[in-house]
Structures are given as structure tokens and as C-alpha cells.
Amino acid sequence: MKIYYDINDIPRRLLRPCVTIGNFDGVHLGHQALFREVVVRSRQHKGTSIAITFDPHPLKVVRPETGIKLISTFEQKKEMISMAGLDILLVINFTHEFANTSAQDFVDTILMDRIGVEELVIGYDYAFGKGRQGDIDFLQAQGRLKGFDVSVVPPFSIDNMLVSSTKIRELVTQGCMEDVKKLMGRFYQLRGTVMVGKKRGGPVVGFPTANIHISEEDLCPLHGVYVTQVIYAGKCYGGVMNIGYNPTFGDGKLSAETHIFDFNDDIYAKPIKINLLHFLRQEKKFAGPQELSEQIRKDVYAGKKVLDEVQKKMLLTCSEEK
Question: What pTM value is reported for the model?
Fold first, then answer.
């Protein structure tokens, strides 16, 4: 997949372009359905599959007071879209100036004049352009007028949950990680560089931790203890993570600390990825380091049981697919 950050860099005379447009926050199963439709249609017609997205998220520009908290970083979004098999990803820099672009201008100057769209695939609730003028009715009318097909991918639900970025954000803040996985098609993931913490984990509590930055300004999972998978240097390790304020020690600063099972490498200043699999318990204040250590020992035991079950389900799924 080729990524372009300037519409003028896209090659002229693209072959039968099939396009989808969206913010694609979280790249959930609904977004993945859009990408599949675009890829299938473009291959059927020996054309070019294209996704158009925006950075930063439009709401951060036009309605910053909403304080929208994103499911994925932009790097994560690009990474997930690149796995969809598309030919081109166009990233449009969303500025206040661009926000004033009318839906008509977007269709005329970007979709028609610059890309030459022949097919457009959109989600059931998508709208774009100033005042969200570019809704389904508008696009279908434009397609009839200018000769491009418009396909609408309908909504779908899993276990009575609508697959949407809004629903996923809600579930993350509730700690419902199994449900998040159902809607995203993968585990919710935090990323960061391991920082030097208070160095209490090993010497004081007996469980060394890898600490990464987390902020209430970002999409923060429900505070408490989670079973995790930690990905470092291409390998995956089990772990338990606490997200919260360390009330036992009265730190007062939000932190994300992960004890990695069977691991003793020095990873300060190294990047790690942490998949959140299951919420174990809420954060609580203990009488002291010994009581905290005893609870972490119980968390580790419970975490390993959860990881064993996850592994069994994965093996069972692989067996059923043969």
C-alpha cells in the first residue's frame, strides 16, 4: 500500500479507482468491511483501491470542546489499514481551512478531477464536507449526475452491540475488553516507551514492572488491573497491568505499570505494545507493600489462568478452520 499525504502526489490516470472515505478510528470490523468491499470491487474491475482519511481527526479541529478521545494513534490506524490489501491510502491534513470545503467542492476537485472516481463505497452513517452536506443522498445524486457508482455498507451488530467507534470508546472506559475485541476484531492495545518509574516494583513489592505513559486526556481504560499480552522485540509475553494512581503509595499521578511474566530483560527506553485481554479487579489501597505483594501474587495466578483459556480458544479456532 502506498501512502500519500498530498493529493497532488497521487499519480494521474489511476485505473478505475474505487474509493472509500472515513475517519476510521480504531479500524474496527465495520471499517474492515468497507475496505474489503473496496478491494473486492477494484479487483473485479482490475482497478485501483483507495481509502481517504484525515489527520488530525476532524472533531479535534471543528469541535475541540467535545474532547474526543481516539481509540488508536495515527500510526496504529495506518498500520491496520495497510493490512487490508488496499493500493493507496490518501491522508488529508484536516485544517480549519479544509473544514470549510463544501461537499460539492470535495466531490468535484478531489474525487472527480484529481482521482477520477468510478466507484465510491461508504458506511451507512457517513457524511462529509462543511455542515456534513455530503450525506448518502447527496453522494448518490452526484453519482447519477457524474457517472460513478455509490455503494452503501449497512450497519451490523455483534451480540446486540452496534459496531462503531463510539461504542468501542464506551466499552474501553468500562473495562469491557472482551467486548472491545469482538467489535475491533483484535485486542485493544496500548503502546509506549518504557520509562523509569519509582523502582518499587522489584525491590519493595517483589514484582518488577514496565511503566509506560498514559494520560486521562487520551482514551483511558477503566482504572484497575488487567490481564495483558506484552509484545517486545517480536515476542509475546503474558502479564498483568495496573492502570491507576497507586493509592497504596499515594503517588497521585496516573500510571500504567505492567508486570511481565518470566521476563528479566532491561527494556528502559524501549518500545512495547500491550494488549488488554481481561479486566481482573478495580484498583484499591492496601495496608502496605506486603499486602499489595500478596494481592499481585493472586493477580498473577488469575492472569495466567486467563491466558491459558485464551490460548485454548485460539488453538480450538485454528483446529476448526482446517
Answer: 0.92
